[in-house]
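On clarity, I found the account of how folds are encoded harder to follow than it need be. What matters is that the chain and its backbone geometry are given together, residue for residue. For the editor and my fellow referees, an illustration may be useful. For illustration, here is how one protein appears when written out as sequence plus structure tokens:

___
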Amino acid sequence: MAHLHFSKIVGILPVFTVAVYLVSCGGSLSDPSSSSPKSGNPGNSGSGGSGGSGGTGATRGFAAGIGASGQNSAAQFLYSAPLPGGGPFAAQINQQNGTLTASPNQTGARNVDPVNMAIDPSGSFLYEATSFSPGGLWGFAIDRQNGSLTPMANSPFAANQNFYSVAIDPLGKFLYAEGSTQIFAYAIQSGTGELTPVPGSPFAAAAPSNPFNLPVPLPANRVTADQTGKFLYVSTSGGIFAFTIDATSGALTAVAGSPFGAASSLPFAIVVIPSNQYLYESSGDGSNSVHGFSINQSTGALTEVSGSPFAGCGLSDNMTIAAQGKFIYTNCGDFSVNSSTGALSLASSFSPGDWPVINPTGNFLWAITTADNCFHCNVGVSAYTVDANTGNLTLVPNSFLILTNDEVGSEASLAITK
């Protein structure tokens, strides 16, 4: 597997922590120079049943784990959070082949340690969670013509607070961010995207899990709303905290029985699938397992499904699934979802790269990649086509968009939006 050469950048703590993660666990990176993936088994033949149809009834059926809320149409823009510092890098997506072209007017706002990003359902506003002094939530307006970003006037919000994950409800009304031991809730102002604290915020929770006991917890998608916007779930060292969301104010109330899954060691990334039936959580305890929970549609309570935890392939910082709901993709492989039971089957241990995000329509997937067997490796994003029936990934030739070099930096996460 290709490793980031973090020895060149150990003087920069944020880059160092991410580099350690990529070298130490499942975040292997594929070779962007070849016309097909170089590692793993590209043939996905999972034994799990086919997934749901992408949500029915009150559910919205949007792709989960992509950084954008409430969306089911094809992605137009991709964003990458660079390490160290700097505003998100913006690129336009070619709808025919999934390749990327840099957007003009790249922002130079300095965010010391970006973690992950969230985008509202309209695709108008992007928010970046940052940590490691100074932290804060950095807000940007998205140019709907070319994807370029303009920092919001009062950004960053809560500048002295470290945030470890951020998400937006599927109606685009509220933003939620995980702090050290609290959940911060904000109302998103119409037209400007500026954030106003929700009454009662912050709300109590446990600290984020830290698998390698690093000075800064590793980036992961630790916060997600369910597809109806009724419930919020937060992965912590004490289990998965579940809350009901007040539809008017955005205030949070703990679900009876929360936190859930406390017996599982080091809950990490979480995702709710488009049908809204199940939530999945990767574990940071070295077991490479994934826990599955059914969601009570009335109360939001979680119940571990039969057979959980399921054998996995490594520590997953992001789990992404298209609106069709058949396959969950991670940085170390993909799973077939049985829509009837919630069981997962490891379909392939092929690694597309780090922090994969899949097009809501399911035809393309993008991931952070670098080249194999190089001393100073270029780091960027590669595109894959997705076989809708098998989940098989095929690298798009010449799709690698160079963003940095591992001698000076890296990329923390990706997000896409319509």
Remarks:
- The longest strand covers residues 378-386.
- DSSP finds one helix and 31 strands in the chain.
- Helices lie at 13-24.
- Confidence is low (pLDDT under 50) at residues 1-57.
